[in-house]
Every structure is written in C-alpha cells, then in structure tokens.
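Predict the holo structure. Ligand: arginine.
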Amino acid sequence: MATVAAQQARTAEPTAETTAERAAVHAVHAVPEVHAVQRSATPRRYLMCRPTHFAVTYAINPWMNPAVPVDTALAVRQWEQLRELYLSLGHQVDLIDPVPGLPDMVYAANGATVVDGRVLGARFHHPERAAEGSAYLDWFRAAGFADVHDPQHVNEGEGDFLVVGGWILAAQGFRTRPEAHAEAQDYFGRPVVGLRLVDPDYYHLDTALAVLDGDQVMYYPGAFSPGSQAVLARLFPDALQATAEDAAVLGLNAVSDGRHVILSQAATGLAAQLAARGFEPLGVDLSELLKGGGSAKCCTLELRS
Ligand code: ARG
C-alpha cells in the first residue's frame, strides 16, 4: 500500500516546466488544470494500552470466541508495531498500565472521549469491562487533565463517539445509550448527531466509520439503519463508501492524521480508494487483536487538546 501511495506522490510532483510555460500551454490548448490533492498530516497525541493481559475469555461481540487460541506474545508484537508506526509518523503516544483481569483494556479507544482537553469518561455496557471505566478515569486525573467527567449513562468512548469537524457523531444500538449522546452534547458543547447501528458485527461506530480529515469520512452503509444511512448521505455526500469485504476485515477501524491512514492490511480495496483520494494508506497486521473484535482504531484513543 505504502508503495502505491509513494508512487502517486512522485507522479504528483511538479515538473521542471516553469509557470510561464505552463500558462502558455494552457492558453493555447485550454487544458483544464489538474489539482493533485495534497493531504497534510497534523501531529496527534494518542493513548494506548499494551496487551500484556490480552486474551479472549468471554464473548461480548460476534468476533470473540473463547475456544479459538490467542497468541498474547504475538498480540504484543503487533501492537508494538502499531505504536512504533505512530512514533515514526511524529505522533506522541502515552501509555496506560494494563490491569490484570481486564483483557479488553488494550482497546483504549473505549476508555474515554477527549475533546478540547476535556475528558468524558466511559461507562461500559458489559460487566466484564466495567472496571476499565475507573482505570481510565484514574489515568486522566493522574496525567493532569483538569476537567474529567464521570458519566451518568453508558458510553464506550471513541468506540461510539467520533469527532468530525466541529461536532460529534454518536452511535446507539449495541453499547452506548442515546441518553449518553445528550450527556456528551451538554458536556462538550458541541452538536452531537445520533446514528443507529444495526449489524452486530459492527457493534461500535468505529468499526463502521472512520474520520479521515476535517469533515471527510469513510463508512460502510450496511452497518447503519436506513434512516441513519440517509443522514450520512445527507451530511457526507462525497464520502468514501467501503465494500462489505473491506468492512469485514475491520478496514474501517482506521486511524487518520489527515494524510496517513493506518488500517488493516487486509483491506486492500479500501487502501486503493484512499490512495485515489490522495491519502497514504499504511497497512498493519493486528490478527490477534482482531480476535477480540478490534483493529488499529480500537487500540488508539486520541487526546485532543
Ligand atoms: N472486545 C471488545 C468489546 O467487545 C472490543 C472493543 C473494540 N473497540 C472498539 N473501539 N471498537 O468491547
């Protein structure tokens, strides 16, 4: 994937031809100007949790099967590669200590939602993950975040809340409650648009939709109710729509810095679609973490200042 994108960037490079020569050519032949989209990355701050205690000991989504063995050492290596990729792209990665007995804590995206440096904590739907809520809240308080809100209603952090432009997309259907959408809107003072997830394979919003840059998104329509599909089409008429195949390898569980899009290396069609729009897809192998129902985005919580 990276090679394809690098190739495109090279072709987009300006030639030695001077502006005057180009203007002359255009004047004579009236060639329409081709604007190569130049995507730019902005440095991000992420929170991650090493999968030291990762395992699949219970099943709370259709991807999880406790009978299928998990290679925890491999999970750690794959996770380290993701972390190193972020660092190599110039992003900051903070770490929260993993807690024994909380195997899903590696999915840091669920730990909170952070906007304008303000933290809306998580409250988990399943009792198996309940203790993660306070573990993440404690981390934020210790890390010096002044405004930390312990939520009243069930919300699973950036699993179901995605910041897009000046507002927030929020899902309900499997985990986060609609009451939590109102709670988030009041707390952040940003408009929250509610969406309904209908396919249990895509139980969190971040398994079906990713924010690429500003108000640009990519999503898999089949994960949403007909009404929510209409809302998405109205809000994002030019959005990149993923195929069922790319969604099924959790290709939409992607992290973008505005230019680089880190996603499952199996989502090859999606990578090509991203490259065609000027993004630089970077494929990662997170096979072990997929057994828990998560990929790159699930392992990554963005700390927005
Ligand atoms: N096993 C976890 C669960 O079902 C996976 C969470 C994935 N995280 C995400 N942001 N989608 O809760």
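The domain at 2-29+41-201+287-302 is CATH 3.75.10.10 (L-arginine/glycine Amidinotransferase; Chain A). Confidence is low (pLDDT under 50) at residues 3-34.
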